[in-house]
Specification:
Blueprint: E1 3-10, H1 20-32, E2 36-44, H2 55-66, E3 71-74, H3 84-96, E4 100-103, E5 108-109, H4 119-152, H5 167-173, H6 175-182, H7 187-194, H8 198-205
């Protein structure tokens, strides 16, 4: 029997929302397909939050990677988040671990029965990748514009001479990264979850 997890999310900004409908819909789908729902993960949190700030999502990723889960069920892609890059990172992380994501409103899965990338989902992921690239380009342009404006007005950039983060500061700043490192996640997977650069993760790894 196929072992699956259900992931549901509603925005914390709307107190009238409830994720029970999502749970009911996905549980009914699992029953119709003779899937075994091993665990349900549900949270009230804004879809604009980064993955590192969504505790149930992190718990779900950790759980499916260590409990032989074959699929994760969601009602809509937006349940994974409204931030395109964060959503894409979650999908890629699941794909790398051969865990298929079923998106109910599109009625597609990211992987085929043989654990290969589904062509239709690949099309979706390609679009998401392009949107994420455009978002990063826009952010980069805004940062560069702010940087040039700052310099033009006599501002200075860079760390103060002799400044270096001590171990305690690193431990405080990278709490979630340290938790994932201790759980055995690879640097690449942690980078996809938290967005922390590989070089920084290497430094963090030396202090735990």
């Amino acid at each position: 029997m196929c072992r699956v997890c259900v992931y549901c999310r509603v925005s914390s900004t709307n107190g009238t929302q409830d994720y029970q409908r999502q749970i009911n819909d996905l549980t009914a789908f699992a029953t119709q397909n003779s899937y075994k729902v091993v665990r349900v993960f549900a949270e009230k949190v804004s879809g604009a939050k980064k993955n590192i700030d969504r505790l149930e999502l992190l718990k779900m990723i950790d759980f499916v990677n260590s409990n032989k889960i074959e699929k994760v069920l969601v009602t809509e892609l937006s349940r994974l988040g409204r931030d395109t890059l964060q959503t894409l990172q979650t999908i890629e992380l699941l794909n790398q671990n051969k865990i298929s994501l079923y998106i109910q409103n599109y009625n597609i899965e990211t992987l085929t029965p043989t654990k290969q990338i589904n062509p239709m989902s690949q099309f979706l992921i390609t679009i998401l990748s392009e949107v994420a690239r455009m978002e990063r380009k826009t952010i980069r342009e805004r940062v560069e514009s702010g940087y040039k404006n700052h310099l033009a007005n006599g501002g200075k950039v860079g760390r103060k001479t002799g400044f270096r983060k001590d171990n305690e500061t690193m431990k405080t700043q990278y709490v979630e990264d340290i938790k994932l490192l201790r759980k055995g996640y690879s640097l690449r997977n942690i980078n996809k979850i938290t967005g922390t650069s590989i070089n920084t993760l290497r430094k963090v790894k030396t202090i735990i």
